């Protein structure tokens, strides 16, 4: 089902080559003035065609708000935003040739012959645009509650950047990164990452990477034990983003290499507040926030659409063949995915605290 | 909320030192004869006190079925199973000293002074016993549909085993591992892992590790795009298990090191079936199963309860102090967690296919 | 929350005087060809301005399908349909004068000063148009499964018609009624009802009534005991329709006047099928369909918008005053509500059998 | 599914002749001291065997609390309460003879041959005992928020009492009625009702009736438009109670006999508060409370278990036959159902305001 959330309900719809894509965001209280410039800026961070690193396919991604907002202020009722599809070239797609790494085969298995295969249909990464719209609204509400969410690219192919785990992070830093064309902490490393992307592109290939996300200002006591743990809620949203194949909180998989005496975060007090002197658990104990920054990383696989010849199956003839994907595709989507990760996180955090 | 699932509803309850813990499992069709020996065996795989590697605290963990079963066969109505708490020593716990790495602080932040702190209360790993009971029923129903679930320990501290990704897995292998006292593929490596655990124990320390899980026999077309993706459903269940801090599907975080041409799984057909010649995506594309084995790994942090002196805060006096956790604790819970991971997965998979 | 359903998810949005109203219908399987003429006809049954009995305010109510349909056939993904608001006269409404019987006061209490008060905003009966669109699709799927849903006006003010409980009903009869301008079994009684409506209109007053609905062809065994009883599911949908203030299944409130020996429906068999020889329970026992027609009635209150002078409060001045509602209003909405009741029922029944 | 609620989750389980019945109540905040005497008193109001008007079958109905409560105070985690089944006579029931008016046939259609038919199994009215336990807790929390819930018998067979709509109701009156052996406003009328019940009993027959329920102290602004309207939420809970076949809010079905000018509730202010001078809408406009008492009535059908010979079907032989239900049955359950209606309402109201 394409509805997510408990106290906040997010319902998305749309196909890459249909009339429009969109979202209903239900549960935003009345009285929030929407900063449309901010929303537009967030949408632009995800939009294709911004530079040489992504597909030259340009999409306006202008959101039309149909409900829930009067005179620029939320009314408390469901907010529906839609984005019309304008720049669609259906002829680029052949229904019978399965694109490796894509959902062509599984979509066909689930929906059968009436599956909308054009441009990935409902599976298209384009459907993350409504998530960004909804998340950009959530971010504004969170900001009013003193909560900031930001991210950076921690890895592209063989180029690694430092981690939020190991540097001093602040709302200012998160904001600064979000304004960058290529969202990294250290631009020098960012340049190397860009080179890696362009190099892959020149080989008709693609690369993936790792995005690290931080939530600052979330007070202790949010979340739940077990099924509605903060990790459960955030991860279920993250794996809703196409191409995400892994998530880890705090030290994550590196916990396997630690002993308990190193892994535990000791408590300390200044007499007024209680905090931990390390943050290996990424701000979450027992599924509940402990007041430290929430830190997690997600793995993004390389864009499956590459221009190289690949082995595949012709489903009509049921025989082995090859496919050469033409059209306009991203050699890397990690930089565009950062804002999707942030906005999905904003929705998850907001649902946990409403 | 401690209710999980869509077509299957699982509701858990209980505190480590309360009268009983338990679960309601709703959605199991009528007519499934329950193999109580199998359920008991699965419960035993999780139970403490089985060998020198875990706490000597022995718990019977005998499940009493209160409803939904008549003459050993499910009736189609909610199944409630409870486990009475018999071996509880509340005096081991001091309410005012926060145990690092535990949910003492966050539980207090969420529930306030009425929080049941005894032995972790509702946050106790003991609450996974009902999940095993429910999952053991789910496993039996899945088996009837030709689906098997198994797991092995991929890593304990600095000892690594091979991955299901890189070896030939079969239902027989999964079953064979599940019968082992220490669930690994290669017992020789298992011995080294045990040494690492005993070594940590001798230092009053603990270790964590990585569990890899496989689902065999799931046909293509199960799951959904976006919010109800198989990855979302499985991960939300996995992060309900205390101590799980990361999850990755297929190549997971290693995708960041691959190019698209290596990451994509090419399709091939034998004229009847379509399959992929590699399984980097862990059997899932676009959130939907593609007919290949579902493969994923979860990271388990080292047991936070260690006997070393640790820095912490006395919440009553609001001053810094130290804590020395006595009582009976596991130097490693990874081996006991394998069956919890499998049973949680069984519930997640069953919910996706019902 | 404005999302309803379990296996079928319906999310509605929109305000009477906003840009558009609409619905996402999620859970319709792929491969259903949409009969757009049928959908349009159902929409027209609800639309205002069709005759002298309803407001002369004419609305096109043309639905634009944004997703989930390709070449006229459902694809299995969420279907979004929107209806643009074209004919809106905001100046008819005064924010500070509470209209008796409307949600002006409660909307203000819930949403505060940012409440969209124009024409009832989100509370407008106009928001039932998306329910009709969604229900018209559900009806087509149900028809394929042999299930028909129809209704008739059982009472308008002091004019009563016979009940489905006491006459022989068939799919043909239900279809015949649905094609009528004024949906009654006996047109002669219908004429008297129309007179009652016109008479109320001439007094600047309004009338309500009772709608009886029937579901034919639903096989025995659908529904659940307790919380997901067919009565619970249908009633929760019916009370989502503005102006509905009561519902009864089978003999309903008349059961209070019966003895058990008269109330019970005796079972009988023809050797192949089991049925009941009466249908006092309206086709439902223990929350589950018994194979007989599902029969229930809903009470619709008189349209609250009347042109007479009424006592009310000016919320700005916080003083007592009077209101004279001008603008274009229905003296009776019962005839327009029949299709809303049917379509809501279609969604409820479909959710119970998917 | 036997889980209900949004912010409050109630999951019930159990069969009449199984080991135990029970409920998980999730969402009650920590820190509520449980008045066990009050809970016991509410349980007793529902329990059979209290007087000549109900079955002489005596059940202890002692609730055992397994979780969520420490030292008599709620901890904030799920509360599980169970009631062991002690007094069960399975031999009273014949699997093959369908009892008219019961769920024997529909249960068999839904669950098949493995259906637990004994004493109605999961369909038994006995399963309302856990609802009373959960609701008695909800009532205590509501009382702290100034909200009282009470009910009275408005009709038994041909004996009618006055309505809360037409008399002055207060918390004191509601409490007074709740303490009565036979919960009516006017004991003189109550005596006549008892006569009607005993008279039916003497004829081996049964009678039903109407219960009217009131919620006092609920402030304006609770509830939602459309799908989560107060009427939707309350009615979905009411139809979870076996034997309930109708519900109406305020004037309910009588609205059909009114004109808008009589039906509308005019607003008035005393300069500080806004209220309505009549309460035809039963305290709800647009699905949201308006600050007036919430008033509604539910119809209860006559107990289907009667000792007269009734026509039915033998499902094994698939032939027509008769059934003579022996055993101990209530000639009327209305008086016992009042507390179930109140407790169900308490859960519904609490879910709407949490």
CATH topology descriptor of chain A: Chorismate synthase, AroC fold
Q: Sheet with the most strands of chain A?
A: 5 strands, antiparallel
Number of strands of chain A: 18
- Total count of domains of chain A: 1
**Greatest contact between two chains:** A-B, 110 and 110 residues
Strand order of the largest sheet of chain A: 1-2-3-7-4
Query: Level of helix content of chain A?
Result: 25-40%
CATH-level-2 architecture of chain A: 4-Layer Sandwich
| Quaternary status | homotetramer
Overall mean pLDDT score of chain A?
94
Secondary-structure element order of chain A, N to C? EEEHEEEEHHEEHHEHEHEEEEEEEH
Q: How would you describe this protein?
A:
4 copies of one chain form a homotetramer. By secondary structure, chain A is an alpha+beta fold. Chain A has a single domain (3-353), classed as 4-Layer Sandwich (Chorismate synthase, AroC fold). Chain A contains 8 helices and 18 strands. Chain A has helices at 36-46, 104-111, 128-144, 171-178, 187-202, 230-238, 260-263, 334-353; strands at residues 3-4, 9-13, 20-26, 63-67, 69-70, 73-74, 79-84, 148-156, 159-160, 209-216, 244-249, 267-269, 274-276, 284-285, 288-289, 294-300, 309-314, 319-324. In chain A, strand 1 (3-4) and strand 2 form a beta hairpin. In chain A, helix 6 runs antiparallel to helix 8 (334-353). The longest helix of chain A is centred in the last third of the chain and has 20 residues, at 334-353. In chain A, 65% of the residues are buried. The mean pLDDT of chain A is 94. Chains A and D meet through loops of A and loops of D.
């Amino acid at each position: 089902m394409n509805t997510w959330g408990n106290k906040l309900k997010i319902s998305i719809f749309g196909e890459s080559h249909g009339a429009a894509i969109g979202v209903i965001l239900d549960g935003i209280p009345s009285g929030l003035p929407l900063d449309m410039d901010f929303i537009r800026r967030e949408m632009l961070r995800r939009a294709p065609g911004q530079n040489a690193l992504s597909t030259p396919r340009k999409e306006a991604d202008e959101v039309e708000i149909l409900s829930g907002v009067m005179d620029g202020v939320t009314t408390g009722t469901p907010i529906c935003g839609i984005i019309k599809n304008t720049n669609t070239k259906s002829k680029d797609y052949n229904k019978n040739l399965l694109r490796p790494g894509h959902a062509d085969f599984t979509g066909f298995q689930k929906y059968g012959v009436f599956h909308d295969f054009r441009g990935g249909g409902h599976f298209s990464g384009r459907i993350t645009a409504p998530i960004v719209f909804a998340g950009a609204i959530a971010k504004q509400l969170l900001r009013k509650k003193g909560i900031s969410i930001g991210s950076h690219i921690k890895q592209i192919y063989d180029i690694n950047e430092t981690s939020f785990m190991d540097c001093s992070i602040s709302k200012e830093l998160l904001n600064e990164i979000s304004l960058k064309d290529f969202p990294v902490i250290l631009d020098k490393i960012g340049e190397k990452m860009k080179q890696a992307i362009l190099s892959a592109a020149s080989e008709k290939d693609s690369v993936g990477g790792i995005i690290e996300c931080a939530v600052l200002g979330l007070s202790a006591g949010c979340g739940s034990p077990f099924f509605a743990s903060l990790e459960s809620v955030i991860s279920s949203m993250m794996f809703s983003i196409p191409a995400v194949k892994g998530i880890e909180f705090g030290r994550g998989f590196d916990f396997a290499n630690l002993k308990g005496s190193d892994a535990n975060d000791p408590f300390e007090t200044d007499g007024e507040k209680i905090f931990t002197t390390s943050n290996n658990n990424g701000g979450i104990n027992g599924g509940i926030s402990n007041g430290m920054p929430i830190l997690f990383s997600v793995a993004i696989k390389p864009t499956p659409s590459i221009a190289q010849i690949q082995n595949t199956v012709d489903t009509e003839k049921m025989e082995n063949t090859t496919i050469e994907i033409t059209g306009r595709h991203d050699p890397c989507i990690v930089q565009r995915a950062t804002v999707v990760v942030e906005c999905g996180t904003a929705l998850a955090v907001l649902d946990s605290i409403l």
